[in-house]
């Protein structure tokens, strides 16, 4: 075996072991956090179990980021086809990254977009969903997602922007936080601009429909 092959084998093994470990143990840091730290940001994060995160927030982030979260096995191929179809027709489209794919990116990969990163996200997302229950996937995501410069996790974000713990978030506060996720360094849920409010309104309109499809995290 070549040295490169050996390195790849070791990396794959390490990722596999960590995925099993992270089903039960909270990830101590993510690649995105490391980058923020290297940029000189002070990390603000506070981990909470999913039971201490408002059901409004659980629902809002699924409505915003991954409407088929409870149905797919890591990758939403229907959303991928929609993106490809929109690209062929030169129309704007939402991204097709699922919550498991974003967990994979945040923990193991890098921020800037590339075909290589997307190619790696797919098997990692499948591995995450095969090892973790969906409730754990969402719990990890809501605790590692970035909500502002150096700001990670919904508990820290809720306390910073709304002066309350995540369990106490109202529906409107939850959708404003969820609408922050695509652009966490540009959007402030406590002082949303017009575009932010429009995105939040769209997410809020989807909530009744998404609630019927979110039993895996609302009624685990």
| CATH architectural group | Orthogonal Bundle
- Rg from Cα: 17 Å
The fourth-level CATH homologous superfamily is: Biosynthetic peptidoglycan transglycosylase-like
Biggest sheet architecture = 3 strands, mixed
Number of strands: 3
- Number of helical segments with 4 or more residues: 11
Mean pLDDT comes to 90
Structure write-up:
The protein is mainly α and 220 residues long. It has a single domain, classed as Orthogonal Bundle (Penicillin binding protein transpeptidase fold). 58% of the residues lie in helices and 3% in strands. It has helices at 3-22, 31-38, 55-65, 77-88, 99-108, 115-131, 134-144, 154-162, 171-178, 194-211, 215-218, and strands spanning 44-45, 146-148, 151-152. A 3-stranded mixed sheet has the order 1-3-2, covered by helices on one side. A hairpin with a 2-residue loop joins strand 2 (146-148) and strand 3 (151-152). Helix 9 (171-178) crosses helix 10 (194-211).
